[in-house]
């Protein structure tokens, strides 16, 4: 059967189009092509998503193609979708061409109903496991597909979840797995235009009509028994960039448990003690993915009855410090050239790295209000608020939550720092904060929201401490950091403009000397023949671009590297 709306990355002989299948499905193809152990899957393409929004419904013919796609999974695994023996359950996951971690929806355990629950119980000999799968699925579907706003995750069983959904919406979760699948795909499409996804794209300059693919993948169960679990592994530390595995593992858990932050997982060393052979296999796969990807990788994995499955691998979101360290180290390893390394670090990341830190001795007498895991370093002083809407109303404040979810992203973008009661270093709050380069402390414990809201605090997300009031800070010197100094040397060789006080060439245009009335919303016009510019305007990317377009030879700026990187980027884009 020819497929217009589906792609099968498992069996593709050549590399699939990433814009068509999304980053998640592309990573499945890559891992399978490397011989790694991946549950089978197929993908509903971004073209189907575009057609969905153009017509207001699932594309014509997609329902029939889904039957074919599920049939291939059934054949490979010897299972039946909705069957009363050896049932097949699937995950339905978003996958845009540009990675947007935590922004769009994922529905796990799809295909479950009363008949399937009984079949799972008979197959595994564990009625409790089967009931938990059914409860989880019903909650996922009720919240993400039907739109319930109730707290469904904490309800004790499927009956209670169903009752809460019925009371909230007057609807029920359908028993027909095919109806579940079609509605879940539509819900994932819709999530690509949610407020949180739109806010993320605006922040990063990603086009709004990008849409998403939908990956339908056979479930593996980290919550099956004591020999099962789930986790996240970074091939390099995403906080400081050191060349060491960094991750967490949750016994008897599913991936959503780790990402949501509702449960604090164990360090990866727990897996090493429990299943040393699985841990060794995981590290070997991670090393290969890091090498093949030529970058630090963020890997999701599940262990089912002692068997390792890889679910995703993507370039890891990282802090500014980690971005700089990894770029330099990849050159040391011979993976990148210095010129390529300069494309891995942005001017904003360097500016972030040059932000203040707690001054020596300043914290010695400060009152510690909370402690947790420093998930994204930095220091911020601000008033604590407890809702994303309050954060938007007070940019630069400190947002505290029990645990963050995709619905908090607009507030996380506005906040100067994020604190959570729950979750670990691979939770939603940690991953999104690293992507935003926002200081973040997670896992501060119950009662943190109530205790901090309304107070002024200083968040030291490097040490994982939250102090009362304002604590004195100091800034680091660009020339004293070995990695920054190396990047600066490389950037000077490739930049189309010189940066610094030493090479000033007349005539000079000084934007800081202009009268306030001469500064409008637009950049001031650079006089013809100007060789050197100075002023804060020319430290920002727009000012750098204007200077280069005017033929300027020298930009005077307090920090050289951000300006050099912006100049190199502009040269590359206009070449």
TrEMBL record:
Domain Pyruvate phosphate dikinase AMP/ATP-binding: 63-268
PROSITE patterns named in the record: PEP_ENZYMES_PHOS_SITE
A Pfam family reported for this protein in Swiss-Prot or TrEMBL: PEP-utilizers
Domain PEP-utilising enzyme mobile: 394-464
InterPro entries registered for this protein in UniProt: ATP_grasp_subdomain_1, PEP-util_enz_mobile_dom, PEP_util_AS, Phosphohistidine_dom_sf, PPDK_AMP/ATP-bd, Pyruvate_phosphate_dikinase
Top-level division of the source organism's lineage: Bacteria
Protein name: Pyruvate, phosphate dikinase
Organism annotation: Nocardia callitridis
